[in-house]
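Supplementary Note 2. Why include the ligand at all?

Several targets in our set were suspected to adopt different conformations when bound, so apo predictions alone were not considered sufficient. For every target with a known small-molecule partner we therefore ran a joint prediction. The input for adenosine monophosphate is given below.
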Amino acid sequence: MNRLVSGIKPTGELTLGNYIGAIKQFVQLQNELPDTEFFIFIADLHAITTPQDKQLLKSRIKEIAAFYIACGLDPNRVNLFVQSEVMEHALLGYIMESTAYIGEMERMIQFKEKRRNQEQGVRTSLLTYPALMAADILLYDANIVPVGEDQVQHLELTQTLAERFNSQYGDTFVVPKPYITKVGAKIKDLQDPTKKMSKSNDLSVKSYILLSDNLNQIKNKIKSAVTDSDTSIYFDEVNKPGISNLLTIYSALTNLSIEEIVEKYKNETSYAGFKIDLAEIVASHIGNIQTKYNELIASNTLDEILDQGAMKAKMFASRKMAKVLNKIGLKRKK
Ligand code: AMP
Ligand code: TRP
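The joint prediction is reproduced in token form.
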């Protein structure tokens, strides 16, 4: 059986860019990989490698889990859980720290970048983060790990650590393969369509759409998106980045191809009709997600899903951990 592991950091609010570029791709994997068991967790231990507000972190953990389910992640198909509730992650993380060399950690590009951005003291866990990530993966004998380009170096280190451990103590870990997710469309800033849509980089709230925005706000943001002074609707990222971005969003949410959309609006003499239609499409799409999200957050269902996910993950993880401890001579009883 194939096993897939992935972690989602509970930092930041989800944007339309996150949804189209990442969450949607992820949800599709459920259907594309029917013979695969999924372990997806909210990587809360990874979040605290940098300072976090306690109350915000607490609510983000549940919000992110609820949004992923509302966006289509199927809890019957996926073991969805919170990382810190399966303590074996931290224990195997320590064993991985005792397998990795400092030099290997210091070479990680993400560490070098994040260290530079950190104004206060750099936490030790920011350096050792890849050991915990290796543990997250190796704990479940995962052979498939969907990651974006920025995580490939961490995954290569995971492979190195699995092989090193296996050669020191005998065959224990499955060496995982990266599964580079199909690059989802990159969604651009609505006010400056040459930049990526991102809450953290943008000062103006009109630049990005959050999955939690109210529907009128969403419609207004689409209608006031910056476009060029031409009136014809076609895809040209260089000369018409604004319209091209709106076409990308339209296509992602309707499954119509860009060509089909261009054909549909070919007789328009202004952008207004196109923008009004897209505003309705985005608002209705996010509206559906919010309806499911609100149901989940207001009921016990979310907690039940996360409890169940943690229980299943724990069953797997504790058995694996016993084997690992035994291999290195740390288990007192057989
Ligand atoms: P971040 O929110 O930057 O940590 O990214 C989380 C995931 O969402 C990553 O897989 C990103 O590639 C994806 N993502 C973030 N912003 C966008 C965007 N504007 N367009 C497409 N994908 C995005
Ligand atoms: N490091 C990943 C990120 O920043 C999140 C993550 C943590 C992860 N553990 C993982 C991803 C294990 C895949 C597998 O996005």
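The longest helix spans residues 301-328. The mean pLDDT is 94. Comparable summaries for the other entries are listed in the accompanying table.
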